[in-house]
Amino acid sequence: MPRLIDDIRRGGRLGMPIFVAPDKETAWSEYARRSFGLLENPRLPVLVIDNVAEYLYNGTDQEYWSLERDFPNLAPPFPMFWCEHRLVRMIHSKTHGDTDVSGWLPQGGRAGMFFVAVAREDAQGEGIPENARWLLWCDLYVDYHKRDVVADGPHGSTFVAIDAEGRAIGNPWMQAYCAPDDEFSVNMMKNVMTWFNPAFLAISFLHCKNVQMVDHAVDPKLAKRYRERHPGAALTPHKTLIIEPLKAILRSEGRAHEHGLAKAMHICRGHFKDYREGRGLFGKYHQLVWQPSLVRGTKGKAAPAREIEVRV
User: Fold this and answer.
1) Separation in Å, CA 140 to CA 75, 153, 178, 193, 298
2) What Cα–Cα distance (Å) separates residue 202 from each residue in 4, 50, 84, 212?
3) Average model confidence (pLDDT) across the chain
4) Residue 3 has pLDDT above 70, yes or no
5) pTM for the full predicted model
6) Facing residues of 99 across strands?
7) Rounded Cα–Cα distance for residues 60 and 251 (Å)
8) Are 160 and 295 a contacting pair, CB within 8 Å?
9) Strand 151-152 to strand 14-15: parallel, antiparallel, or no bridges (unpaired)?
10) CA atoms in the 13 A half-sphere facing the CB of 114
11) Residue 23's CB: how many other CB atoms inside 10 A?
């Protein structure tokens, strides 16, 4: 089936989020136009993370997620990439039990998250931590199965500062298009952050030796039918994560079914090895090389609550 990224690229209309203030609609439209230009890049890696989202919402009963505790390695796997997943029908929670969300998250709906890794030396602005290695620019698109739009979005830039070991630094902040005195809209913007959790978990998983990323080419017959239906458009190859070995470790070593993911999993952070100077790797490769992480069972520790700063 076509992915959300395919529907966006073929020119489907994007809906403006309801919290955009009337006097900021022009600015939002210009931002959406620039973002669309980046999404058109045919070399943009596309990660389909349906299984990760299902695991986060139903494979665990954890209700609250911390950037520091639950996503310990957010070092960007690519300079620019897209993640998407189908919207779940049910959320399993130790705090609230099982909640049917199909009433406001329609069947067949999809969420897409766009990420750009900005190197610290290329980032401009106030308040950027000195020990940041990257700023992870994140944006959200949600397909609510509306008749007249492909998806609502982009929702506005969310930034997370990441250090050289992949740890989130300080609090994330957002560049919003809502009125600063509109409390409802500001709270909606803050809630956007929770939509990124499946992608943040997928990024952390990508740094584990127990997880494999698999490339999927487009079926030629399906691609031909799609081009006939949408002249000038093309389906996008994508990647998926094989997380079954990791889930087995979390069940056996961490007893995730009893204690929840936060207590069951600790991802030992990997690190970059810099071979850009000197002899290089094996005497010829001059580049940064990621030393992947391992997964071990642990009881874990609670992390302090985080606030999100909204900038308008």
Assistant:
1) 19, 6, 15, 9, 32
2) 18, 10, 11, 11
3) 81
4) yes
5) 0.80
6) 91
7) 11
8) no
9) parallel
10) 22
11) 9
